[in-house]
Amino acid sequence: MRKVAVVEKRYAKDAIRFLLENDMLDDSRRISRSNGKVEIPVKSDIELPFPYSIKEQEKVLYRTQYEPFREIKKRASEIIEGEEELLPKKWERFGDVLIIKFPEGMERKKELAKIYADVLKCRTVLEDVGGITGIKRKPLVKYIYGDRNAETTHVENKIKFMFDASKIMFSSGNVDERIRMAYAGKEGEVVVDMFAGIGYFSIPIAFYSKTNVYACEINPVAYGYLKKNIELNNVKKNVTALYGDCREVAPRGVADRIIMGYFKSKNFLPHAMEILRGEGVIHYHTTCPKSSFPEEPFRDVARAAIDSGKRAEMIFHRKVKSYAPSIIHGVTDVKISEGH
Ligand SMILES: C[S@@+](CC[C@H](N)C(=O)[O-])C[C@H]1O[C@@H](n2cnc3c(N)ncnc32)[C@H](O)[C@@H]1O
After folding, report:
1. Which atom of ligand 1 is nearest to the CA of 268?
2. Could you tell me if 190 and 277 are in contact, meaning their C-beta atoms sit under 8 angstroms apart?
3. Which pLDDT score is estimated for 187?
4. Which of 4, 25, 26, 201 could join 19 in a cystine, given CB atoms 3.0 to 4.6 angstroms apart?
5. Is the dihedral of CA 228, 150, 154, 259 positive or negative?
6. Domain architecture of the chain: domains with CATH
7. Residue 66: its pLDDT value, please?
8. 285 CA closest ligand 1 atom index
9. Is residue 99 within 8 Å of residue 141, measured between CB atoms?
10. Which residues form the pocket of ligand 1, taking CB atoms under 6 Å from any ligand atom?
């Protein structure tokens, strides 16, 4: 049973937010439009606080394509007979670039990569050799097949993200959070994205919520793409890109909302308090043991607030994704107010 909630366009933003907050959005399928209405995949029968109807999705659009794997397996069986079970069943696809993690010791990877590229109609294949590292969050990938230029444009929720997949990370597991952030702001408010990357959150929140965003980024390659993506998505009027360490380049006393999308940002909290225009909301991302979420990140934000003579109140939290065994990536929304 693949159900969708059908809502009028004007309710779509709030319905998506409601479903995300109540863990009822089925994120394995895509949101689509039909007859001027928006069809949002849901996990089960639900009740929405807006006019809606529920129906079976006519054409199921999966985010990850499982069907092509059959064809990949068929073609690969000619070169790795008997070892088909080792073939990766999942991959990351950004625009026309594929990232595949092969099991250790897998042979004939180049030929296999060509099969994946042909079936999935991709131009370049990179091998994931070990995740994402360092302050600048660079992915560890190796060129394996096709065009050596791994620059691509990935479209998500109608936003164009251009980046070089061999140099810049793009977390497909954060898709729900990018969608939530797109609608989190209010028209005209000032947002400071302290760790903007290529504009993962800055561009959706400027585009959909019509906020004015200061986007800070320290990595020159990511900063270059941030500038390009601002142009590509026509949000030049709304987004100001600032190159450098957010502790230095972010303006002070301006923000109604701050996005801290970097796991090691605890030491940046005192700076966030200075960046706020008195009061506001901080979206604080962390990795932490499942058992101490959201108390641990909230405590850190609250401590920084108190140290700056402010008050903190947790208004929302959600697990974004699993990070490691019993460790999650979570986001905590904290409202900061003046006074103790
Ligand atoms: C993890 S990425 C952003 C991930 C993104 N929020 C997502 O959803 O995929 C964090 C970014 O912060 C940048 N960064 C790290 N330290 C910084 C600092 N002190 N000032 C500005 N940017 C910084 C890194 O270069 C990187 O591009």
Report:
1. 19
2. yes
3. 96
4. 25
5. negative
6. 3-56 (3.30.70.2580), 67-149 (3.30.300.110), 173-338 (3.40.50.150)
7. 58
8. 6
9. yes
10. 135-137, 171, 174, 195, 197, 200-201, 216-219, 222, 245-246, 261-262
